[in-house]
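Reopening: structure tokens for the nicotinamide-adenine-dinucleotide complex, inputs below.
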Amino acid sequence: MSADREGDSKAAERSVSRREAIAGLGAVAAAASGVFRPVPVLASTPEWRADLFAPPVPSLTQSRMLGVPFNKHETVRLAVIGTGLRGRSVLGEFLAVEGVRVTALADIVPEKAARAAKMVTDKGHKAPALFTNGERDFERLLQRDDIDFVYIATPWEWHVPQAVAAMRAGKHVGVEVPAAFTIEECWQLVDTSEATRRHCLMMENCCYGYNELLVLNMVRAGAFGQLKHAEAAYIHDLRRLLFEDKDEGIWRRAPHLSRDGNLYPTHGLGPVSQYLGINRGDRFDYVVSMSSPEFGLTEYRAAHVPAGSPKYNERYRCGDLNTSLIKTQQGRTIMLQHDVVSPRPYDRINMVSGTKGAFRDYPARVYLEGMAGGERWNAIDTVKAQYEHPLWTNVGELARKLGGHGGMDFIMCYRTVQCMREGLAPDFDVYDAASWSAPGPLSDASVAQGSAPMRFPDFTRGAWAGTTSTG
Ligand SMILES: NC(=O)c1ccc[n+]([C@@H]2O[C@H](COP(=O)([O-])OP(=O)(O)OC[C@H]3O[C@@H](n4cnc5c(N)ncnc54)[C@H](O)[C@@H]3O)[C@@H](O)[C@H]2O)c1
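Re-run output (same inputs, fresh job):
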């Protein structure tokens, strides 16, 4: 995948105008008449369900939200809280799916909400209601009774308060990554989802990447045998963005001053957790973590930030490269890394190793025992025909044209709408949101205590063991 530069200040606008410019793609773009024809949602096939469903839940876990289907929604009435770069980009993807109606938008910056509202009306939809009266105006938005699903794309510290409030108001929630900052917050999400019977999905788009779904298919077909180890990362040079005086630069540098650990664990960890069947037959047990020294932000600031800037009062704590090792209850291991301040090519590693073979991404390569040519990597093309995921086979071409992160953003939105319209269980749930976010605070604690092991809570309260292992 090309550099998945998140938060590119031009990304939302670029992807929208590119979409609008696609000629001949009657299903997506505004046709010459100006009439917008969104993408119809195809019926999911039984194979998709086998692939992506959380398995059925045994009776002991009935109060849990594992495998709980959405009630059927003919139309998914969507609200967005946070219409910055990511909020508008994902709004554009949702608007390309049939059966979505955007009813309300909230942002503390009225111009950003207005830009998002224009995206909605440009597609021929009714203007959504806007809530731009300060940081708690989202609470008024949540009082509306014409919202089924609230997508939250605000700065990290707002994710949990807004997700909890949305569930309490009876709405399903899709929250951006990471879902939570602390273990207590992870529990708040779990407890609220269970108490309200509303889903809380962390919108981990990387789970829907082409390679990730292909590998998931291979894992579930047994191509790699028994899985024993996986590796995942978020390695992405964000130095320029972190020092900007707009967008993420306003808030995303602050955790580098107060924390030392893995600040953004979920993009790499989400997909490999699905390979390993985490919370569905296995779960994270404990983590040990260590950080390299901090050099990156200090050195970049000296070279790029004008003398006299208040940014020189900042002292960065977070080591440049954080490496964590997670042990699972089934004894498997995951190596997880985070580095957003080094000049390195983009990499989520996305590696899995089993008794019959292995996969490693960036670039994508595969080795299955007995492959011609001996013990060396083979191009991913050798397995595409057999294992391409049906979601990509069916709407992949369109997803690539829409463009968000190579198409995975569209697949994520399409699949979310499909699950809600058909009354399916979502592909991941609040337990995944909590588990995939937890290495953030646990890595901080481990680093602070000389890499001591930190136990993961069992967010499923035992239900993980009663579900089928998919790994
Ligand atoms: N999944 C991905 O690939 C991906 C990519 C980029 C960003 N993200 C995530 O998306 C989220 C938003 O990132 P972004 O790049 O859009 O940042 P951004 O700064 O561009 O947008 C955040 C928006 O939230 C608004 N906001 C702040 N407080 C608010 C409040 N109380 N109520 C309503 N609106 C409020 C801001 O005005 C801004 O418009 C972050 O959690 C980030 O980690 C995910």
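Residues 1-36, 44-62 have pLDDT under 50 and may be disordered. Residues 408-422 form the longest helix (15 residues). Marking as resolved unless the reporter disagrees.
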